Fold this protein.
Amino acid sequence: MLTSGFPSPAEDFREKELDLDTLLVKNPSSTFFLRASAEKENLAGIHEGDILIVDRSVYPDAGDLVVYCTGRELEIGYFSDSSKEVLPEHTLWGTITWIIHCSRP
Amino acid sequence: MDNPLLKTIDLRKKEIFALVDCNNFYVSCERVFAPALEGKPVVVLSNNDGCVIARSNEAKALGIRMGEPAFRSRDIFAREGVHVYSSNYALYESMSQRVMNILARMCPEIEVYSIDEAFLHLTSMKRFNLEKYASKIRKTIKRWTGIPVSVGIGSTKTLAKVANGIAKKNPAYEGVCNIEECPHLDELLGKVKVEDVWGIGKAYARKLASIGIFDACALKNASDSWLRTNLTVEGLRTVWELRGIPCTSIKTVFSPKKQIVVSRSFGKGVKCLEEILESITEYATRAGEKLRSQGSSAYGISVFIQTNPFAQGAQYHNIRGIKLETPTSFTPLIVKSSCELVEQIYRDGYSYKKSGVIISNIVPEKETQLGLFEQTGTRDKMQRLMKAADDINRTLGRNSLKLASAGNGQEWQMKRSFKSPCYTTRWEDLPKAFLKKK
């Protein structure tokens, strides 16, 4: 904090600077960062190399983007409420809350 | 057996402890990010890929034992398709933090006991349905982190540990066992071997076997005088705990280490002094970090080097130390002293397998007095320099800022051929999620 000889009239209104961490990560214990690997198609604006913020403590609503496990790897898809699972053999890994896309890779 | 001690316990003062313990922790950490490992035999190896330090249940079923040297199990690994991983401590520490933070949120009082175990002090909650609560803890940790845990509940820490063991081994309990609610406690204790009781190791187990005590129930009923004589007061405390009398308390205040040792075995034999000095510099630096992180300084610095006792060739090992006039936590000084010591004990012509730095005579930072010839302000400057270095290393990663003498190539580093990526601590190691064309 810089101090100066003259008190600032704005001092009483000072607010905490914006901080991405508190915006993007609501529950650090259950939040993980994943890297999207997309073949040509991009679903809901997810591009190759994007960072996905995935919160395992958030139960998805129908239509939410989620990460789920197939028998082999982690995949991205839409959550369908009708079956309460993505597909019978697949299990929910976490809900995608934010997608971070770098515009200058 | 009618134990008069039990009658005098005021039931209103009865305490309740829980032990939360992650199942096959290192393996479970790997499985969170590699779901293909679910249901498969998996092992994790120690530093230098030396021996097995974690096994999945499927690997246990194949007869692979804890501590088994890896080279001896090579055939069974290949034959049974066992997935082998080198220990990834960065990942395990990170996952452990998550589990402990969740516990800290859900419980009034927690004591972290090890990387994958914590005791909960639940006395204030004893009127609640503890099985339901424990079950909620289990489900929350599994959902939020992917790590499966077992919970044991008892009126003492030792009983909570016994309960945890029971919950782990019997699927019928669904991961939660409250030993206080079990109708046939003595019967259950009868099935627990003495060496599996916390505080009773192989040596005590042999002594107990000599008087015909093999299980926890018999142990509980053993005579106090025999116990005090043969197992010391520590052993007696363990037995009192089995009887439901708490003899240890929750340790929530961290007590700083009295001695810090940083050492590693080399991946391959090291012959030349330069490489040994590089390793010693690295360990001395790390020791300095540990010292500062606990708010301490130290008088004593020692180093040791040794050849491999199991290998062919001439054997040599030596250790030498100094006591400083004023205690320090200043890395350059620790490194300089350590290097000087190693130069004194190094002998040419040997193939060294391990080196290490030992910091002793540790005192709180605040207690250090200025040496006779020290200038005021120097210590202050040193502290600010070290704090800046520590902050940088914490943000940018271990060893971002280090002494040039620690070397760049570091040929002697640990062999860790099967290490998984640092999924949660390095951007370049993030786990991948695939978007497939449908």
Remarks:
- The mean pLDDT of chain A is 84.
- Helices of chain A lie at 20-24.
- Chain A is about 5% helix and 30% strand.
